[in-house]
Amino acid sequence: MNQSLKIDPYGFREYDARWLYEKDINSIGITNLGKGLGTQIIKHTNKKNPRVIVGHDYRSYSEDIKISLKKGLISTGCFVEDIGLSLSPMVYFAQFELNADAIAMVTASHNENGWTGVKMGIKKGLTHAPEEMTELKDITLNEKFISGNGEEKEIKNFQEIYKKNLTYKKRINKKIKAVVACGNGTAGIFAPDILRKIGCEVIELDCDLDWSFPKYNPNPEDLKMLEEITKAVKENKADIGFGFDGDGDRVGVIDNNGNEIFSDKIGLLIARNLSKKYKNSKFVVDVKSTGLFKNDEILSKNKCKTIYWKTGHSHIKRKVNFEKALAGFEKSGHFFFNQPIGYGYDDGINSAIQVCNLLDNQEKQMSELINELPKTFQSPTMAPFCQDNEKYKVVDNIIQQIEKIKNKKIKIDNQEIKEILTVNGIRFSFEDGSWGLVRASSNKPSLVVVTESPTSDERKIEIFRFIDKLLDETGKIGDYDQKI
What we know:
The chain is of the alpha/beta class. It folds into three domains: 9-157, Alpha-D-Glucose-1,6-Bisphosphate, Chain A, domain 3, CATH 3.40.120.10; 169-374, 3-Layer(aba) Sandwich (Alpha-D-Glucose-1,6-Bisphosphate, Chain A, domain 3), CATH 3.40.120; 377-474, Alpha-D-phosphohexomutase, C-terminal domain (TATA-Binding Protein, 2-Layer Sandwich), CATH 3.30.310. 36% of the residues lie in helices and 20% in strands. Helix 1 packs across helix 2. The protein is globular.
């Protein structure tokens, strides 16, 4: 019996595509996605046979999905260059190194097993934004495909070229002992090797490839993953712990005492370090990030400006590019280094190298460096379930309610809301610098909730209780993935 087409429209997300395979998409659906992407690439590059770099992560079904995707790309006239088992940043790098026209990386990043997806990009160093995703969705679902004669070739040993690029002239002087955790994701065959090559003593944790993710999801915001790294750092008396996500574009950091350092704080340390050499620079951070960037003394002294922008690797990447910012930081662990430090895209291993440079340049441990920052009480990123077809309406409703509370000067934990930012959901700030955030997740049926207070842990919790009550009253919210 011939298989019939299956492709759930909700899989086309803000800046990449994600589906449960084969519940929401099947191999014919993936081939159609390839046809849609190939058509879009030809339209934007004005080339009959554009060159497209393709790679895949280590999930059991990723290679089959890549075969179906390539079939679609080739049918439109694309010349596919397959670099094999990859990290997302390796595919981004390949577009520069091989001077190709576009990229397609088969990965669902840190999503649970069963998920698949594709990260796509045409302009070098950038991935699809909402406009490109809307266009791709229209081409694919309405089958507005171009026909052509493409071809494919295999690029051998590209992993070594990527590793050499990251390690060239990056040797550190200090002997840094690093726990490297990969959650059995694809970063396991890259991160330990690269960090050893720059001079680290590496303790591997869950670096064997196992697509079933037996212990925890490879997600540097996952509390189980962070707890395992903490334990290993303490047991081995390590200087630092790194946790990489499934496709290697994010990193989480644990200090020498076994304490998690949220990535936005690492970003601030790196920004301070860079600002001394690159004065008058701009930095871009996402709306989930600490409020400390806003009035940081060192950044101000070096005449650097910080812009808060939409969460999402594609949004921050584009904003860094548009603003010609030196770097961008996302609380989820995406760091973006622009020229002259990088090509502007996110690479978790390159970010870990920057952290090693930070330690290499100073006679201080990570815990001492972090203690030099003003103390704040931060929640982890919390994700309550909310249907894809309801989550944006729920957020719009929350925005209206919080705007009313601000206008009426109603106090939350004896504080008035002083500022509201709505570039991505709502981030509302209080007199003392405390803040809360509610936004819709870009790639899952859930919302995102974060709170922070420079005043007290209790205030951080009170702001969360305030948000949780508003959400509960909508009747549209399910269980949280984790909760303070």
